[in-house]
Write a structure and sequence with these properties.
15 helices; four-stranded parallel sheet; ligase; acid-amino acid ligase activity; GH3; binds adenosine monophosphate; GH3_M; alpha+beta; 18 strands
Length: 477
C-alpha cells in the first residue's frame, strides 16, 4: 500500500480520540497503566528502493509514537525498547515481564486484534516458569540479548519473591479460567478488536478474562484508517464504527441481493441509507483511487451527519466445491452452531480454518479445528464430533445442502481435530514468511500446500458427517 508521511498525522488524530471517548464510559483510566502487546516487524525494500513494512510498524517506529508526550491516560507497561525489538520472542517476553511486574497498576489489557492477546496468554502458559524465575531473582532471561532492552530492563528488574510465588501458583493451576483478572486484578476491560473475523475468539477471551467487557475501539486498515467506535463498551455484536470523513474520500458500492447492476452506482458518505449494506470504496491522500477495500458494512445510524457502520464481513473468503459458495460469515455461523454441542463437554473451538478438498470425488469441505478441552476426562467422542459435522452442514446455505442431497456433488463434511498449539505454529509460519504479528489474522480458508501439510501433520482425529443434511426444494433462500 502506498503511504505518505502526513498520513501519520491522520492516524495520530484517530488514536488521540480513543481515550477521550473511552473516558466517557470508564473512569479512572489515568490512575494506572495499559498492558498492550504491540510488535514491530523487520523492514524490507521494494525493488524500486522504497521502504516496505506493515502499517503498525511504521506507526510504532515514528516519532509520533516514540516521542509521544506524557499522557496519564496512555501510559503503557511495555517500554518502547520492547515494542521496537523486531525479535518477537524477546519483545513478547519483555512486554509480559513488565506487565507482570506492574500487575497491580494494569487497568486494561489489550492487543490490536483478539488473536494477538490470545497469543500472549499462550506465551504466558509456555513461559511462566522462566518469567517467575526472573521476577523472583531480579534477573533477565539470557535469551533476551537485545542491548536496548537489557539496558532499560536494568531499571525495572528487582527481586520480588512474593509476586513470583503468586504468579507461579496461579499459572501452575490446570484451570486458567479468569487468569487475566487473577493476575491483573484491576483490569476493567480488554482492548481488542473482536468484530468481523475476530468474533470467534470471544468465548475464549471470556473464558480467560472471566467475562470482562471487550472494547472494539477502532476500525482501520493498511490502506487507510476509517473510524472509531463511539460507544466502546457496547457488546461486540452491536458495535458500530463511525467513519471519520477526514480520513479519506469515502464512497460506497451498494451490496446485497437487491442491488442490481444499475443500482450499483457509488453512493457518497452522506447519502448512505440506514439498514443497507455497502462495500467500502476509498480514495486516499496517499494515492489509492476508488480502491475497493473488500469490507462489507451495514449502516446502523448517524452521528451528526457521519454514518455509523456495523462491520458485516470481508468479501471473497469462499469455499466452493460445485455451485455452492460459502462465505466467511456463513462458515463462522456454522462453526458457532456446531460448537454449541461441545458446551456440555466443557469444550470450545478456539481456532479453525477450512479447505475445499477436491481431491476426492465428489469434493467436500474440510474443517481444521483446534479445541480447548477444559475437562480432559470428558473429551468429546467420535459420535459428538461427527454430529458437529452434521450441524455445520445443516447451518450452511441451501445451495450447499442441495448439492449434498439432490445433486450428490459434495461429499460429507469432514472435521480434522488438530493438536493444541497448531494454529500458533501456523501463525509462526506466516510470520516467518513476512506476516506482521499485530495484523495477523488466521486464514479462514487455506490452499497453500505447506500450510496444509503443517495442519495435516498435526491431526489427532478425523470425523465425517454421518448423514445427509435436511434439504427440500421449497426451502431455497
Ligand atoms: P490490515 O490492512 O491487514 O490491517 O487489515 C485491514 C482489514 O482488517 C480491514 O479491511 C478489515 O477487513 C479488518 N478490520 C480492521 N479493523 C476491524 C474491525 N474493527 N472490525 C472488523 N474487522 C476489522
Amino acid at each position: 500500500m502506498p503511504t505518505i508521511k502526513e498520513e501519520l498525522d491522520r492516524r495520530q488524530l484517530l488514536y488521540s480520540l480513543l481515550m477521550p471517548v473511552m473516558n466517557l464510559y470508564v473512569k479512572g483510566l489515568d490512575k494506572g497503566k495499559g498492558l498492550y502487546f504491540l510488535f514491530v516487524k523487520s523492514e524490507t525494500k521494494t525493488p524500486g528502493g522504497l521502504l516496505a513494512r506493515p502499517v503498525l510498524t511504521s506507526y510504532y517506529k515514528s516519532e509520533h509514537f516514540k516521542t509521544r508526550p506524557y499522557d496519564p491516560f496512555n501510559v503503557y507497561t511495555s517500554p518502547n525498547e520492547a515494542i521496537l525489538c523486531a525479535d518477537s520472542f524477546q519483545s513478547m517476553y519483555t512486554q509480559m515481564l513488565c506487565g507482570l511486574y506492574e500487575s497491580e497498576q494494569v487497568l486494561r489489557v489489550g492487543a490490536v486484534f483478539a488473536s494477538g492477546l490470545l497469543r500472549a496468554i499462550r506465551f504466558l502458559q509456555l513461559n511462566w516458569p522462566q518469567l517467575t524465575h526472573d521476577i523472583r531473582t531480579g534477573s533477565l532471561n539470557t535469551k533476551v540479548t537485545d542491548p536496548a532492552i537489557q539496558e532499560c530492563m536494568a531499571q525495572v528488574l528487582r527481586p520480588d519473591p512474593d509476586l513470583a510465588d503468586f504468579i507461579a501458583k496461579e499459572c501452575a493451576k490446570e484451570n486458567w479460567k479468569g487468569i487475566i483478572t487473577t493476575i491483573w486484578p484491576n483490569t476493567k476491560y480488554l482492548d481488542v478488536i473482536v468484530t468481523g473475523a475476530m468474533a470467534q475468539y470471544i468465548p475464549t477471551l471470556d473464558y480467560y478474562s472471566g467475562g470482562l467487557p471487550l472494547a472494539c475501539t477502532m476500525y482501520a486498515s493498511s490502506e487507510c484508517y476509517f473510524g472509531l467506535n463511539l460507544t466502546p463498551m457496547s457488546k461486540p455484536s452491536q458495535v458500530s464504527y463511525t467513519i471519520m470523513p477526514n480520513m479519506a474520500y469515502f464512497e460506497f458500492l451498494p451490496h446485497g441481493p437487491n442491488s442490481s447492476k444499475h443500482a450499483r452506482k457509488l453512493v457518497d458518505l452522506a447519502d448512505v441509507e440506514i439498514g443497507k449494506e455497502y462495500e467500502l470504496v476509498i480514495t486516499t491522500y496517499s494515492g489509492l483511487c476508488r480502491y475497493r477495500v473488500g469490507d462489507i458494512l451495514r449502516v446502523t445510524g448517524f452521528y451528526n451527519s457521519a454514518p455509523q457502520f456495523h462491520f458485516v464481513r470481508r468479501k471473497n473468503v469462499l469455499l466452493s466445491i460445485d455451485s455452492d459458495k460459502t462465505d466467511e460469515a456463513e462458515l463462522q455461523k456454522a462453526v458457532e452452531n456446531a460448537s454449541q454441542i461441545l458446551q456440555e463437554f466443557n469444550t470450545s473451538v478456539v481456532e479453525y480454518t477450512s479447505y475445499a478438498d477436491t481431491n476426492t470425488i465428489p469434493g467436500h469441505y474440510v474443517m481444521y479445528w483446534e479445541l480447548l478441552v477444559k475437562d480432559p476426562t470428558n473429551f468429546p467422542n467420535e459420535k459428538v464430533l461427527s454430529q458437529c459435522c452434521l450441524v455445520m452442514e445443516e447451518s450452511l446455505n441451501s445451495v450447499y445442502r442441495q448439492c449434498r442431497v439432490a445433486d450428490n456433488s459434495i461429499g460429507p463434511l469432514e472435521i480434522r481435530v488438530v493438536k493444541s498449539g497448531t494454529f500458533e505454529e501456523l501463525m509462526d509460519y506466516a510470520i516467518s514468511r513476512g506476516a506482521s504479528i499485530n495484523q495477523y489474522k488466521v486464514p479462514r480458508c487455506v490452499t497453500f500446500t505447506p500450510v496444509m501439510e503443517l495442519l495435516d501433520s498435526r491431526v489427532i482425529s478425523v470425523h465425517f458427517s454421518p448423514s445427509l443434511p435436511h434439504w427440500t426444494p421449497e426451502r431455497r433462500r
